[in-house]
Amino acid sequence: MEETGPSLSWLLQDAARQLRAALGLENPEARLEARLLAGLALGQGSAWLIAHEREPVSPQASAGFAALLGRRLAGEPIAYLRGEKEFFGRSFVVNRAVLVPRPETELLVETALATLPAGQVARVLDLGTGSGAIAVTLALECPEWEVYATDLSPTALEVAQHNARRLGADRVRFAHGAWWKAVEDVKFFDMVLSNPPYVAEGDPHLGALAFEPSGALVAPDEGRADLASIIRGAPLRLANGGWLWLEHGCGQGAWCRQELLAAGLGNVQTKLDYAGLERVSGGQKVSK
Ligand SMILES: C[S@@+](CC[C@H](N)C(=O)[O-])C[C@H]1O[C@@H](n2cnc3c(N)ncnc32)[C@H](O)[C@@H]1O
User: Fold this and answer.
1) What atom in ligand 1 is closest to the CA of residue 98?
2) Atom of ligand 1 nearest to the CA of 217
3) Residue 130: CB within 6 Å of ligand 1?
């Protein structure tokens, strides 16, 4: 006798129920995630899932679906299960070596694009590139820019280099090392961007971020240590008129502005995200 399992529709409903209970998702989001996981497990798109909802799922496919669902119920981000995340309209490969690029970081990219006139030749640096989301996006949006990208994590750099190759940003130059040290041999930058670790040790939000590398998230000194290293090194590495832009926590704007001013940068300012929160601060090296 042929072995049959529960229908796809039953599996989807049951998965959505578990996702609501375990992760506190609203019903539409839970249903969407259940479909996404089923699509991944069965290797099929949403049209196929709709067309085959009433059919039984083989025990082997059910087991694959259950395994993915188990990982999601444990809190693993969907992006790691899919192995990709969309950023600024492009799909970036991600794994547990890199932070999942966030929509908030698109503000840093928008700020960079608005800072230097389109078509201008410029040397631009992304410090702590992770998946390469910022550097690769800027290299593709502004092909005339000479883009550098660094990271302390060699495995993150591998992911970033892979993304640069597959998205056609072959000219991004990657360097391994701690903040400014990684680019010691490069003279001056017209713009430097960074989304460094800025979460304080022991922050209660870290529980929900347990699957992402802590070296990408957490910084000593109430989350300020890496921001401070980057700001304090900037005046020596920016070209005259060059800009530094940093993503930071929504409660770190005032402190960042103070540090940027203390480092001697001018035109110090903060950009708000779509929720009206202070997210990106920067300043310019102005001649005295
Ligand atoms: C918040 S993640 C940002 C990743 C990516 N730029 C993004 O926005 O999605 C911070 C990155 O900084 C890197 N990092 C941490 N400490 C560093 C250091 N001392 N020097 C260079 N990179 C560092 C981490 O490995 C991580 O990839």
Assistant:
1) 27
2) 1
3) yes
CA distances, 176 to each of 127, 156, 220, 237, 288 (Å): 10, 10, 21, 17, 33
Domain count, the chain: 2
215 lines ligand 1 (CB under 6 A): yes
CATH number of residue 50's parent domain: 1.10.8
Any ligand 1 atom below 6 A from CB of 195: yes
pTM of the full structure: 0.95
Nearest CA-CA partner of 155 in 184, 127, 132: 132
**Ligand 1 contact, 99 CB (< 6 A):** yes
Give, for all 288 residues of the chain, the pLDDT tens digit: 445 789 999 999 999 999 999 999 999 999 999 999 999 999 999 999 999 999 999 999 999 999 999 999 999 999 999 999 999 999 999 999 999 999 999 999 999 999 998 789 999 999 999 999 999 999 999 999 999 999 999 999 999 999 999 999 999 999 999 999 999 999 899 999 999 999 999 999 999 999 999 999 999 999 999 999 999 999 999 999 999 999 999 999 999 999 999 999 999 999 999 999 999 999 999 976
SS3 for 92? strand
